[in-house]
Amino acid sequence: PGSMLQTERLTADEAGLAQAAAVLRRGGLVAFPTETVYGLGADATDATAVARIYAAKERPSFNPLIAHVDSVEAARIQGIFDETAQRLADAFWPGPLTLVVPAAPTCTVSDLARAGLDSLGLRVPAHPLAHELLKLTGRPVAAPSANRSGRVSPTDADHVLGDLDGRIEAVLDGGAAQVGVESTIVACLGGAPRLLRPGGVPREAIEALIGMRLEGGSEGGKSPLAPGMLASHYAPRARVRLNATSVQAGEAVLLFGSGVLHGAEAAQASLNLSKNGSLVEAAAHLFSYLRQLDASGAPTIAVGPIPETGLGEAINDRLRRAAAER
Ligand code: TXA
Ligand code: MG
User: What is the CATH classification number for the domain harbouring 282?
Assistant: First the structure.
């Protein structure tokens, strides 16, 4: 939609960072690396710039976006932190955690970025390039994952360009994202904190810190998920078949650990998220492997079982969404 832009690939150095910040400050769109996935950034205080995010992504609705800031202090200008939120921020920021908190009277994040809500999602990313960019920009930066709506989240600059070339001003190329699944989202809106989305910080680590079970997550289904957590949100083009024990000819295969699937020799393509069974490594590979298997042209991706512990909860959540009927 709109006129084609010349999307610039900016290098991960001082000049590239300065240019990226300048583009953001004049209302442009810049995709940038975080430790989870690449974000599609716009000045969160500028509703017109934020509107361009939805246009570039072809998002069907105005979901609230995460506002990224460079420090806990900057976050406290935007949101109201209760005791739990403060403890979580102190423990996990900078890092792959998003806190949904009530908007503060001093909040400058535009209504559009908040989708008209009285709350907002805040995150202090740990990636050094993201941190530098936010510091240079000097404003909160709204950033959903830098993919077109309904596609898999991007974990490197080539993924971003594959989806958004010609639709955004620039991508800051910082190589591969390390965590590979999005941030964990916890809502602290009074009462017990709630898990809105499993992600890069395992549920267990949060529960250990706050000394109680977190309500919510993907398993129950009764608790409302974060708006925008549509089942189809993480969908590759191929069908996805979970907990496969065998492979049919022509299918693509996604394995984990030492598990072997019956008939895997006949697969169209086969990748292992982590041969030695590391969930951290598996998360880092998840989205790029889904893309690669999708590109093999196989009609179905058969996925072997993956444990539900630690980062496995987020990995399985994304895979269940990718597998949902659509
Ligand atoms: O790792 C990540 O979180 C990446 C990087 C770029 O930071 N971002 C990301 O953004 O995954 P996105 O837009 O794909 O997902 C943000 C989620 C959405 O499901 C949205 O509905 C939820 O955060 N969210 C944001 N603000 C919220 C609010 N005030 N209340 C409830 N959910 C909110
Ligand atoms: Mg996304």
Answer: 3.40.50.11030
